[in-house]
Prior knowledge:
By secondary structure, the protein is an alpha/beta fold. The protein is 38% helix and 26% strand. The longest helix is centred in the N-terminal third of the chain and has 12 residues.
Amino acid sequence: MSVLVLNYNGLRWLSQCLSSLAATDYPRLDVYLVDNGSTDSSIDYVQRGFPWVKIILNEKNLGFAEGYN
């Protein structure tokens, strides 16, 4: 099972969101952070604090629907 977390400058919410996902006991859970061109330090924070999260980088903010597609 995979979970996609769409992010755009959402550093302040990532700790709680990703910590909650880490606490699940679902077997073989893949977590992806889809970043929509953030300009805060979201990517560095996730790489350092949650190295098990796979990161997909969009060069710009594609919005909600296109970001998930």
